Amino acid sequence: MISEQLDKIREEALKQIKGSDGLEKLNEIRVNFLGKKGELTSILKSMKDVAPEDRPKVGQLVNETREAIEKVLEETKNKMEAAARDAKLKAEVIDVTLPAKKNKVGHCHPNTIALEEVERIFTGMGYEVVEGPEVEKDYYNFEALNIPADHPAKDEQDTFYINGDLLLRTQTSSTQVHEMEKGKLPIKMIAPGRVFRADEVDATHSPSFHQVEGLVIDKNVTFADLKGTLAEFAKQLFGPETKTKFRPHHFPFTEPSAEMDVSCFKCGGKGCRFCKGEGWIEILGCGMVHPHVLEMSGIDPNEYTGFAFGVGLERIALLKYEIDDMRLLYENDIRFLNQF
Questions:
Q1: Which listed residue, 109, 213, 328, 335, has the most CB atoms within 10 A of its CB?
Q2: What would the pLDDT profile of 167-183 be if each residue is shown by its tens digit?
Q3: Where does the Aminoacyl-transfer RNA synthetases class-II family profile domain lie (predicted)?
Q4: Percentage of the chain surpassing pLDDT 90?
Q5: CA 269 to chain centre
Q6: Is 13's pLDDT higher than 90?
Q7: Is 25 exposed, middle or buried (0-12, 13-18, 19+ CB in 10 A)?
Q8: CATH 3.10.310.70 is right for the domain spanning 110-337
Q9: Is 11 marked as binding a ligand?
Q10: DSSP 188-199
Q11: H helix runs in 153-300, sequence order
């Protein structure tokens, strides 16, 4: 009889559920007994052979059997899932009392710190920061700056030439020429950037380093303006007690030209190991823009004058942070860089 078949199906299903060892096995049992081709479904399909008056009773028995199997399946599934969750939690224990992992946050390189300080000082004076190409034409790097073809600086032992006309710039003064050629006067700018020279690597030299060049072009600009500007720059960079001294020098693109020294900020000019007992430290070169340089860029030297200066960014960093070897700036040693 159908009732006996249903009892056997229920017993067998409960037996298999009890002996199952995982959720996959439970799913197989569900399909075998309750699926479209399952044993309980096959009985429902045979209802056509049951007498009409017995069909309601048989249908009720089938539903009761299905509900009984589904109930046990669901209970067993919940127990298995809870056990699996508990096992996972035990395996993934988190000790909330442990200190958190600290993220290593980077910071600026000493060169970048020095550059930002220089830019802050000059932009505070109304200067514009201008960038130029690192691969430059010989004309802009030399000729337009009053450096003739037979000048020693143009020798391949001093300059990286790509071909006869192109080179890696040896100074950011070429950026100043580009600005002067635009004809937008007055000009008040600084030009920071990487430059290249064929130098051997040692404590104070590198084939690649950085410069900050400055240029002012306007009517009635004098050497006094240059001295006042650079004196204020030195005070803001090295301290309010810093003094400046100008020594005559020669640069092809300025006339007159000078080297500027600052009083030693370690000893106040008295003389110490840092300034080699002299009380002064050489810091930059400067001068009034040569009239011929103005003419070559299309500026009338009878109407306009100007001054220019250039300082090595690494030199500022070495002095400001008392670093005695330039190579430390490029070795990327974390132990050194973490000090800044």
A1: 213
A2: 999 999 999 999 999 98
A3: 118-331
A4: 47
A5: 39
A6: no
A7: middle
A8: no
A9: no
A10: EEEEEEEEE--P
A11: 173-181, 223-238, 291-296
